[in-house]
Specification:
8 strands; about 25% helix; 2,3-Dihydroxybiphenyl 1,2-Dioxygenase, domain 1; single chain; alpha/beta; 4-stranded mixed sheet; 3 helices
Length: about 120
């Protein structure tokens, strides 16, 4: 079976985006190419986001990134305490149960965990 390996994500500031994904969600910096204004960060399942700086950023209206965390309630408290902007706290929504943050570029980042999804997402 094929496996999704990486996603190219246009960003306003590749360094700020790298820092957000690394420091807020624990992604590992895989590599950087400063002269191309690009950083690659990956999650623990080896999916890589290529954060590529662009001059004009137009966030698509129906685009979001969904990230599984160990505990969505704890992740929300921690990230909100760090000043991360949320569209909504953990709650029941059309896709199940979780919270929706915004990265520095305005991309919706949906957070969920397996236990809460089973118990409250239904």
């Amino acid at each position: 079976m094929a496996r999704l390996d990486h996603i190219e994500l246009p960003v306003r500031d590749w360094r700020a985006s790298r820092d957000w994904w690394r420091d807020r969600l624990g992604f590992e910096v895989e590599f950087e190419v400063p002269e191309r204004e690009l950083a690659a960060v990956r999650d623990e399942s080896d999916l890589t986001l290529f954060l590529c700086q662009v001059d004009i950023l137009d966030v698509p209206p129906r685009f979001s990134l969904t990230v599984q965390v160990p505990d969505v309630e704890a992740a929300h408290r921690s990230l909100a305490g760090q000043g991360v902007e949320f569209n909504h706290p953990p709650s029941r929504v059309f896709w199940g149960y979780g919270a929706e943050a915004r990265d520095p570029n305005g991309y919706p980042v949906r957070l969920w965990d397996l236990k809460s999804m089973k118990e409250k997402g239904g």
